[in-house]
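Justification of resources, computational component.

The compute hours requested in this renewal are based largely on the per-chain cost of generating structure records like the one below. Each record pairs the submitted sequence with a full structure-token output. That output is archived, and it is also reused by downstream analysis tasks.
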Amino acid sequence: MIKPAWLNKKISLRDCSQVKGMLKDLQLHTVCEEALCPNMGECFNQRQATFIILGDICTRGCRFCGVTKGKPSALDTDEPRRIAEAVKKLGLMHVVITSVTRDDLPDGGALTFAETISSLRAIGNKISIETLIPDFNANQESLRIIADARPDIIAHNIETVPSLYKEVRPSGASYQRSLGVLRSLKDLAPEIALKSGLMLGLGEKRDEVLAVFNDLIQAGCMFLSIGQYLAPSLNHYPVREYVSPFQFLRYKEEGERLGFAHIESGPYVRSSYKAKDYLTL
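The structure output for this chain reads:
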């Protein structure tokens, strides 16, 4: 399938070099690099990055994701401190922290999320913090740890419509579990904004997308990102459709009409793309 004209963004290595060098020196991982994000050049040039904690190897095998799968290494207890150092050097005012899924850990890594948030709060500036979390196997204590750490936004991506889960997310993920995670977080910390993300172009139908919108709103979500799925390689789940910019605009309008407070929707939108705008618009 040939990419249409609106999907022609190139990654400039020159724009990436300074931030990449700093991250390498601090031995930190970003979703920008690990997931091969097409916005990396744009974000790194603006000295923005989305940090991955808990290592760079995921215990699950989602077919859409470019992150390495396998057996993770031991936890790096100094990682939260180094992330705070990177945030200070970059001068970030909105920080997004995500992670690989760590089904090998009893708490799924929730305590490391909390320690990272604590390190960021200790910087002293008025930094807003967004956590993009895995499902923690719906472990209520893990979700409580995240809620008690009080990030400004808790995001958990639904990713795709229920009918495609077995094909796209065959290893451990569950649509209903992810909705349950969002509902639990809303109960645990109703004052914290909830966010989710959806990929298009996997073979979903319009009525299925709108049904997901309704499910997310009923679960307590107020923010949503919608973007075009782009396969990281020929070995990943194939793109079934290139969704037009006009259709992305239609979904944004329909979603906001249904009740979302803010939606970023477009071919190159990703979970943490323009993340600070959700709190400022």
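The mean pLDDT is 89. DSSP finds eleven helices and ten strands in the chain.
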